[in-house]
Amino acid sequence: MSTVAQVRVGGRGRRRISRATLDQTVVGYLCLSPLLLHFLIFLAFPLVFSLYLSLNSWDLMSPDKSFVGLGNYVQLFHDADFWQAAVNTVIFAFWRVVVGTILALLLALLVNQKLRGISIFRGAIFAPVITSLVAISVVWLWLYDPSYGLLNLPVKALGMAPLAWLQDPHLAMPAVIIMSIWKGVGYTMVIYLAGLQGIPEQFYEAARIDGAGAWARFRFVTLPLLTPVTLFVLVISTIGAFQIFAQIYIMTNGGPVKSTTVAVYYLYQQGFQFFHMGYASALAWILFLVMLILTVVQFRFFRQEVGL
Question: Which domains does the chain have, with CATH numbers?
Answer without folding.
Answer: 6-53 (no CATH), 79-306 (1.10.3720.10)
